[in-house]
Design brief:
By secondary structure, the chain is α/β, with parallel strands linked by helices. It contains 9 helices and 14 strands. A 7-stranded mixed beta sheet has the order 6-5-4-3-2-1-14. A 7-stranded mixed beta sheet has the order 7-8-9-10-11-12-13. The longest helix is centred in the C-terminal third of the chain and has 14 residues. It starts with a strand and ends with a strand. The model has no long low-confidence stretch (mean pLDDT 97). Bound molecules: zinc ion (2 copies).
Length: 262
């Protein structure tokens, strides 16, 4: 079974990831306006009414802005854990009860398996996801301040990984953000730096030759090419050949990535 994925938007201005096994299609987060989500889906030739479920990682606005809107407009079921529901429900607006699903462990949507796992972020009960179909596995991990053992274990043996590479530490520290915000971003419940991600990736690469997309890049404290080079340099230092042992690319704030077939 082939899984297809496109990251429709990534960063603090909005996040959404489209994944499909051709029969079932899901969005992970929908943190843009309804109109903009429709526009991004259209760019990858998907109609919003083809979406079978929206999975929520956590209640921050950049992940849920359009969740309620799409659910109402296209009668799409939403999946989140209880604490995320508790924290998000005011922002999601009035929903059809039948579309409100609470998960507490692994679950299926059509033929697509979903395994949530805890991440370390300043939200109610934030999660990453492993999405699988047959032997194909995609991992999603953004919005985490550090890499816990649980995250590390869940990101092994993947065919494709969307991983946060939020900021360059020097740019963050020398930038204009107020002290409390710098501290929050750097903190254990904040966001991963380029160096954090560069240090993690070598242990996740095996004969699967995974595709890796750097995500949730900061507009103010990062440059896509810098994130890419930081990660690439460390991988090469560890003996991996980018393009052969793995594929590496990054996501965008203002447009979808291409569709990757896994
Ligand atoms: Zn976010
Ligand atoms: Zn967040």
């Amino acid at each position: 079974m082939t899984l297809t994925i496109s990251v429709l938007a990534s960063g603090s201005s909005g996040n959404s990831i489209y994944i499909s096994d051709s029969k079932t299609s899901i969005l992970i987060d929908a943190g843009l306006s309804g109109k903009e989500l429709e526009r991004r889906l259209d760019k990858v030739s998907v109609k919003a009414d083809e979406i079978d479920a929206i999975l929520v990682t956590h209640e921050h606005k950049d992940h849920i802005k359009g969740v309620g809107i799409l659910s109402r407009r296209y009668n799409i079921p939403i999946f989140a854990n209880q604490l995320t529901w508790d924290a998000a429900s005011d922002d999601l607006g009035q929903l059809d009860e039948n579309n409100c699903n609470v998960f507490s462990g692994e679950f299926m949507i059509g033929g697509i398996g979903i395994k949530p796992f805890a991440i370390s972020h300043d939200a109610g009960d934030p999660v990453g996801y492993v999405v699988f179909s047959g032997h194909k596995k995609i991992g999603i991990a953004t919005d985490t301040g550090f890499i816990t053992t649980e995250i590390r274990e869940n990101l092994k043996n993947l065919n494709f990984l969307v991983i946060e590479s939020n900021h360059d530490l020097e740019m963050l520290m020398n930038g204009n953000y107020p002290h409390f915000l710098k501290k929050r971003i750097r903190g254990e419940k904040g966001h991963l730096s380029n160096d954090d991600t560069a240090a993690l990736l070598p242990e996740l690469i095996n004969s699967n030759r995974p595709g890796i997309l750097l995500a949730h890049l900061s507009k103010d404290n990062n440059i896509p090419k810098l994130a890419y080079i930081t990660v690439k340099n460390n991988l090469e230092k560890m003996g991996f050949k980018v393009g052969e042992d793995l594929k590496l690319d990054y996501t965008y704030r203002h447009k979808p990535t291409k569709i990757y077939n896994i």
